Fold:
Amino acid sequence: MTLSRTTRRLLAGLTFGVLALIYLPLLVVVVNSVNPSQSMTWPPDGVTFEWWRRAAHSAGARDALVTSLQVAVIATALALVLGTLLALALQRYSFFGKHSVNLLVILPIALPGVVTGIALNNGFKGILGIDLSLWTIVVAHATFCIVTVFNNVQARLRRMGTSLEEASADLGAGVLTTFRLVTLPQLRSALLAGGMLAFALSFDEIIVTTFTAGNGATTLPIWILNNMFRPNQAPVVNVVAVVLIVFSIIPVWLAQRLSSDVEAAR
Amino acid sequence: MATTDVADARPDQAPAPALRGPVARPGSRLLHRWVWLRLSLLLSAPLAWMLLVYVVALAALLVTSLWSVDSLSSEIDRTWTLDNFRTLLDNEVYRKVALRTVGVAAAVTVIDVAIALPIAFYMAKVASPRVRRMLVVAVLTPLWASYLVKVFAWRVVLSEGGLAEWSHLGSPGYGLTAVVIAQSYIWLPYVILPIFAALERVPDSLLEAAGDLGAPSRMVVRTVVLPLLVPGIVAGAIFSFSLTMGDYITVNIVGGASQMLGNLIFINAGAANNLPLAAAIAMIPIVVMLVLLTAIRRTGALENM
Structure:
């Protein structure tokens, strides 16, 4: 198929135009972090670092960040273990109900967030009678993070094949030894990718979190949501947003490095 | 030579390797011999988690939707009743909000697929490999940026005296239009990526063959490319539809006074203290998604998620 030059130009123009539009709002947030106007009127008529100073001293934001990190680390660890086990079971064995299990893993992200949220909220509060806390957030996050690890590990297992594992077994290695010395090293980058996704998903989650967070547990997204509407706190939220934008570049950079490592190894 | 070949070609007659090796310990030997034991060890923990945490919670949600709240004591009354669903059907507010939610989700999905198709096509089939890598990074980066930051960004852009007003393009202000814009913006990368992945799997030779056989490029796109993209498009559409339908934060931030189903669920679960009614409202998105998922299960798109 040969595309005419106009078509190619049109496609290129559309692509770069939309990408520019995607970055524009983020850029506005970055610029507004030094906007002297508290209501963030555009264009800014000066530069101030007052909001950055205030954000650095905001105890609320700092505590929320710590809570978010705690939740994300524990949920990711749980998801890594459960997702890997599940991927091994589904990729290496066939059994009755396999497709249902597959669907079950996808369900927490395929169903709308409010559904997962209210189901867990009702399960904790209405059925089990547990008070919502940091741990209820962890359980909720781990549940929908499993699928990211599962997907990455399953894709890797499919590509790996079983010949190396069989060779290891033929050479006399036990099942656990084979897993530790042969399977696990090959899964490393898939686990890193899946774990990173799970971490980001948990760190950023707000909808399910609003349903499962107790009074004492304020994650960073909840803190942002609570403070966004307060006129004197909005600029501080803006600064936190800029920090989050900068941090979101790290996983992309890591993922690029990872994939180029894979390409180099080929 | 020929005789050893025959012996080697039948490995199933050789003794199981783990039995013979001195390194295999009893536990390992057991694991090697009993496939079901290995399988159940792998499966028990994750399956128990998913069943106990999620399936039980969903089932309990259904049961709770059939209960009611005692108006005097505000305790949950555990006698079966269809009152909650009757409320949903009779009360016009719920019907309106449900339709609005599905409408916004559908609009966002259509907009995102329409924008994602040409972009994914350009990335996968037109751009040079170097530009392609750059574009993938450019699409991926906002995906990692915080959801709330993105909604906040639109709140700032659309605010009074914000960029949209200053640009004289006409700001829609806070309202349903703003919700559709912000949601389309947020989920766009989620739609581009599966379509791009599906396009990358379409070999260039197929397109060339169609072109060589005389098909004009519009026909190639319609009869060769699009049919092969269906699973990718469906995967992206499910993402954007479900994510939009389950969202009620964006509408709080840029939606002005309008509400989506999630707002009603949240209010009833929290401030209004009517978990049964909240559970009944939650059945609406569940039913919509289940109908949608069963309808498209056959396309094989679910395996690509």
Observations:
- Residues 1-22 of chain B have pLDDT under 50 and may be disordered.
